[in-house]
Amino acid sequence: MSNLSNAEECLITSVKRTRCNKQIRAQEVRVIGEDGKQVGILPLAEALQYAESQGVDLVEVSPDASPPVCRVMDFGKYKYELQKKQQEGRKKQTLIQLKEIKFRPKTDDHDFETKLKHIRRFLEAGDKCKVTVAFRGREMMHRDRGEKVLKRVLEILGDEVKIDQHPSMEGRTMNMVLASVEKKKQA
After folding, report:
1. Same-domain status, 148 and 131
2. Which residue in 69, 94, 146, 179 is deepest, having the highest Cβ count within 10 Å?
3. What are phi and psi of 136, to 5 degrees?
4. Which tens digit of pLDDT belongs to each residue from 39-61?
5. Which class for 56: exposed (0-12), middle (13-18), buried (19 or more C-beta within 10 A)?
6. CB-based contact 131:103 (threshold 8 Å)
7. What total of structural domains would you count in the chain?
8. Strand locations in the chain (E)
9. Which residue positions does the secretion signal occupy (predicted)?
10. Last residue of a domain, one of 66, 90, 114
11. For the segment 61-99, what is each residue's pLDDT rounded down to a tens digit?
């Protein structure tokens, strides 16, 4: 009896695993040699003997094909290289976060300038910035003031930004998403 709970067992069994050597279930397999050339369609027992004579493993590459395609290779080395490729892919990945700056229809000039500095800092860091104008109570009747705030932000930032999401109302807030414009290097 295993020490794993049912949920953990389900997670483990649902992971797609590459079959190797005696785990292969087909009677006949199409065998590809280490050099990449086709050996031919062989019964499983012969294919396993062929791989063993080469001193490597028989790995099922394409289980859905008819007959399944198996390759003669060093399985440990294959898994290691696959892991390295995945690691390299994660290194090159860049995460873009969505930062939010909240304004009010009556935000004063000094606060406005401070919030603009924050927006610039977020955009320079490579993140996107969600500019929100929050309305309270009777301010909802004056949505045009919120639009003026967003237009003012766009006028001041000008060519530094592009609009990812145009201004829209969501409940008592008006939102707009900004992203930085890629600057071309001059040679």
Report:
1. yes
2. 146
3. -125, 145
4. 888 898 888 998 888 888 888 88
5. buried
6. yes
7. 2
8. 28-32, 38-43, 57-62, 69-73, 98-103, 128-134, 161-170, 173-180
9. none
10. 90
11. 888 888 889 899 988 888 888 889 888 888 877 778 899
